[in-house]
């Protein structure tokens, strides 16, 4: 199973769990939370109504959740008037009955001395008896022009008493909460009472409390639509979520496949947006590919150098083998002639030195070949001027034989380099200059801080040889049959030390320059 399907399945399972939790919340917790919220809301409503009425003594700025079931009653600190207000207006009730006025005064007294009410338990009984007597049928018939007939119901009280709770808001305000049930609906009545500057203020609010069963039925009826919408949302979310994860991974996989099928240096860095783990993986792979590319380029360069070196060694060995044939053949010819005492070769004293010369020539070629295989560089501070003086002294005999005038100009120049390699470079260039300078000519050597210039006058290099002048066994000395290794060795050692050599023809000679800072 590929990662896309796995991600989709895992996301679907997780979405199903979330969906189940949401449904449990809707069916079980939401109704009870709503009931609790509604009860707290009703409590805050009666508290706000009561406090607002105390301030303004009217309903002009009061908003009630049940306007027709809300009432506030204010009993002044004296007199026979009582005020009742709700959203529809304010009514003043004047008590004309003396006994009721007396009970009203008692109510004012006990509201200030509530502790004495405990010793007078029959107060409320007398209060209700007086009210019943004052509001009997005869009173209404006598004082009002309307005939009231009261018909008693067989069901004296259809309400069953539920729970009640007393909430003390402050020292002078109490809210009484009473719950009842009529067999079908639940009701909650709130009575807020405050004694403010001798006045008794009572606010009433009656609301119907919603039942959990009613809310649950509504939720259950809405479940099909809720489930369908949630599933659709979850599926869309899961699809895009899985694509968001899979697409970067596919890009990384395709990029890796491209690199596998093609040259690594042809691959551009892959861009993964974001700051998550996949983006970090993309950056890491880019860094890895970059390092691999650098290593690949270095390896190609080393391979190229290795191929060139192998080719050089192959050519060098072939050429050196060919070069060695000449002195070996000459030496063998001389030795065989002396052994057989053929003609002039009978004079061994004359031809043995010639054999020795050929053997010495062979030894020099072998020594130079062996030295070329030594690539160790041991640098130290060397005075180049002193080194040139030593080399000129060693070749003093050859210089005097050809009556060459050597003009050396330069000051002490210190250079951190390998003594044996720099010696070979300068020695070969000076030997070349001496070999190719005719008698009674001049060699001019100029040393500065960054370069060494050697000019041998009266010499010339064939133009067709100049491009290959640094190749092994290339020589323009046809008379002395030079070995052609001098410039090759100087060029090879210069590369090891990081120097640069230039050789060119000038109007009346040949100029060789060694640049110490390449």
From TrEMBL:
<protein>
    <recommendedName>
        <fullName>histidine kinase</fullName>
        <ecNumber>2.7.13.3</ecNumber>
    </recommendedName>
</protein>
<dbReference type="InterPro" id="IPR050398">
    <property type="entry name" value="HssS/ArlS-like"/>
</dbReference>
<keyword id="KW-0597">Phosphoprotein</keyword>
<keyword id="KW-0812">Transmembrane</keyword>
<keyword id="KW-0418">Kinase</keyword>
<feature type="domain" description="Histidine kinase">
    <location>
        <begin position="319"/>
        <end position="518"/>
    </location>
</feature>
<feature type="transmembrane region" description="Helical">
    <location>
        <begin position="12"/>
        <end position="34"/>
    </location>
</feature>
<dbReference type="InterPro" id="IPR003661">
    <property type="entry name" value="HisK_dim/P_dom"/>
</dbReference>
<dbReference type="InterPro" id="IPR005467">
    <property type="entry name" value="His_kinase_dom"/>
</dbReference>
<dbReference type="InterPro" id="IPR003594">
    <property type="entry name" value="HATPase_dom"/>
</dbReference>
<dbReference type="Pfam" id="PF02518">
    <property type="entry name" value="HATPase_c"/>
</dbReference>
<dbReference type="Pfam" id="PF00512">
    <property type="entry name" value="HisKA"/>
</dbReference>
<keyword id="KW-0472">Membrane</keyword>
<keyword id="KW-1133">Transmembrane helix</keyword>
<dbReference type="InterPro" id="IPR003660">
    <property type="entry name" value="HAMP_dom"/>
</dbReference>
<feature type="domain" description="HAMP">
    <location>
        <begin position="243"/>
        <end position="297"/>
    </location>
</feature>
<dbReference type="InterPro" id="IPR036097">
    <property type="entry name" value="HisK_dim/P_sf"/>
</dbReference>
<feature type="transmembrane region" description="Helical">
    <location>
        <begin position="218"/>
        <end position="241"/>
    </location>
</feature>
<dbReference type="InterPro" id="IPR036890">
    <property type="entry name" value="HATPase_C_sf"/>
</dbReference>
<keyword id="KW-0808">Transferase</keyword>
<dbReference type="GO" id="GO:0016020">
    <property type="term" value="C:membrane"/>
</dbReference>
<keyword id="KW-0902">Two-component regulatory system</keyword>
<dbReference type="GO" id="GO:0000155">
    <property type="term" value="F:phosphorelay sensor kinase activity"/>
</dbReference>
